[in-house]
Amino acid sequence: MILALEFLFDQIILPLIYGFTYELIFHQGVHTNYILFLNIFKILSIFVILILNHYIIGQKLYLKPDFAEFGWQIFIFICLLIIAISVKGQHFWLALDIGIIAALPEEIMFRGVIMGWILEKLASVKQTYFNVYLALAIASIAFGLIHYVNLAQQSFGFTSLQVLNAIGIGVILGAIYIKTGSLLIPIAFHFVYDFAATLSQGMPETHYVAISTPQVVFQIVWFVVQAWIAFSIVHYHFENNLLLQKIEKK
Question: Does the pLDDT of residue 94 top 70, yes or no?
Answer without folding.
Answer: yes
